[in-house]
Amino acid sequence: MDISGVASIIGALGIGSFAGQYLIGSQQRRQLRSEVLRHLANTERTRWAGALSSDPSFQQFKDSIRELETAAIIARVPRRPLRLYIQLATAARLMSDDDVEEKDGQEEAGGISTALSRCVRSSAAQLSRLMWSPWLARACMKRRTNEIEREAQGLDEAVVSAVDRAKKFHTYY
């Protein structure tokens, strides 16, 4: 049997069509995951408040969260790590806004707890890993999410209070 005969048998069985759709689908999935990473970077940039007029507003932060969530739903990102990141990033933004108010617009206003920042970055890194290698990252996803949640709940009272406020704030769902 020559190559054209094999090709026609493969086509008749529908294998060629399936392989083509799989290859096209994987390219689309990569594009969707890149959108999530782009919106994640934007959210990280807007989660810091500041006293200057050029600093991102809280509305810009909420918009970036909404865009991240939309891209994540389309890309089929697991909800639990996404929800954890959104809660921690919102808590960080709320603390940053509180710091701006307390320092009455000074230049160094807008800081957050180092420990909370570490939790937010860990959560963002987990989302990033889920985008770069979804199957490998999903294998450790539950354990890593539990570790980040335990770390956040073990922080000082002001941070835990901010995380609880963020859960009630509902910038998501």
Summarize the structure.
By secondary structure, the chain is mainly alpha-helical. The protein is built from 7 helices and no strands.
How does this structure look, described?
- The protein is mostly helical.
- Helix content is 79%, strand content 0%.
- The protein has helices at residues 3-13, 15-46, 58-74, 79-102, 114-132, 134-153, 157-169.
- Helix 2 packs antiparallel against helix 5.
- It starts with a helix and ends with a helix.
Please compute the radius of gyration using only Cα atoms: 21 Å
Strand content: under 5%
Quaternary: single chain
Regions with little confidence, pLDDT below 50 for 5+ residues: none
N- and C-termini, Cα separation: 58 Å
Secondary-structure-based class equals mainly alpha
Characterize the biggest β-sheet.
Answer: none
What is the count of helical runs?
7
List the secondary-structure elements in sequence, H or E: HHHHHHH
Annotation, overall tally of beta strands: 0
Shape: elongated
Percent helix among the residues?
A: over 70%
Overall residue-averaged pLDDT value? 78
